[in-house]
Amino acid sequence: MRLNSCARLSRSRGMCCALGGGLMSTSSTSTTSDVVLFINGDEYPINIDNRTTLLDALREVLGLTGTKKGCDHGQCGACTVLIDGRRVNSCLQFAVALAGGEVVTIEGVGGDGGRLHPVQQAFIDHDGFQCGYCTPGQICSAIGAMAEADRGWPSHVTAEVAAGVESAAGLDAEEVGERMSGNLCRCGAYTGITEAFMTAARSAR
Ligand code: FES
Ligand code: FES
């Protein structure tokens, strides 16, 4: 389940468009804010236009260009990152409204010393990409989707919705396709993406 900015804020704050705990200062007339973003374990104190999306803050302000811009309005999944472990379209999330959330981008999913995340390795092993443009979003989304399945969350194609699923390891290709349906691949590498997902889901993560 992907969260957009309004859904996330309404759940965490009880209101839409509240400004978050990472906000340092602003005023009712100011069009910019001082914020501290928490990304891949590092703190980034920056001053940004209040209308800046997390995607643009990552790419244009901080130079973290691993996260890609496709449609820029929540339709393609290329911009997917993890916020507090949940997958989010960063083009729909205002940076000033992060509420202190911990962001993980494709630059931060691996381990120390350049060690690849098991999902990254599986994408390589199964040719889960061609041009690679959608791949950072696919990988972040897959990591988030596996966490959802490990919590037992059902999808639209789960046979027994009330029972949910046991874990990501038991997902079949139909489940993977449904759960990853928010991430488009213009190269059509879906067969490899699905195989990579299923292999990584069955490995120790
Ligand atoms: S760029 Fe965000 S969903 Fe397409
Ligand atoms: S690998 Fe080219 S868009 Fe997915």
- Global shape: globular
Number of strands: 6
In CATH, the homologous superfamily of the largest domain goes by the name Beta-grasp domain
Termini Cα gap: 20 Å
Work out the helicity level.
Answer: 25-40%
How many separate domains? Answer: 2
- Written as H for each helix and E for each strand, in order along the chain, the element string is HEEEHEEEHHHH
For the CA atoms, what is the radius of gyration?
17 Å
CATH class of the largest domain: Alpha Beta
Structural class: alpha+beta
Give me the CATH fold name of the largest domain: Ubiquitin-like (UB roll)
What small molecules does this complex bind?
A: FE2/S2 (inorganic) cluster
Q: Outline the low-pLDDT stretches.
A: 1-21
Report the major sheet: 6 strands, mixed
How many H/I helical runs?
6
CATH architecture of the largest domain: Roll
Residue share in β-strands: 5-15%
The average pLDDT value, as a whole number, equals 89
Summarize the structure.
By secondary structure, the protein is an alpha+beta fold.
Key terms for this structure?
205 residues, alpha+beta, Ubiquitin-like (UB roll), DNA polymerase, domain 1, 2 domains, 6-stranded mixed beta sheet, 6 strands, 15% strand, disordered N terminus, binds FE2/S2 (inorganic) cluster
Describe the protein's architecture and organization.
By secondary structure, the protein is α+β, with helices and mostly antiparallel strands. The protein folds into two domains: 5-108, Beta-grasp domain (Ubiquitin-like (UB roll), Roll), CATH 3.10.20.30; 113-202, [2Fe-2S]-binding domain (DNA polymerase, domain 1). The chain contains six helices and six strands, in the order H-E-E-E-H-E-E-E-H-H-H-H. The protein has helices spanning 5-13, 54-61, 118-125, 135-150, 173-179, 190-202; strands spanning 23-25, 32-39, 42-49, 80-83, 86-89, 102-104. Strands 1, 2, 3, 4, 5 and 6 form a six-stranded mixed beta sheet that branches. A hairpin with a 2-residue loop joins strand 2 and strand 3 (42-49). Helix 3 (118-125) packs across helix 6. The longest helix is centred in the C-terminal third of the chain and has 16 residues, at 135-150. Mean pLDDT is 89; it is low at 1-21. One FE2/S2 (inorganic) cluster binds at residues 69-72, 74-79, 89, 91. The site of one FE2/S2 (inorganic) cluster has 12 residues, from loops.
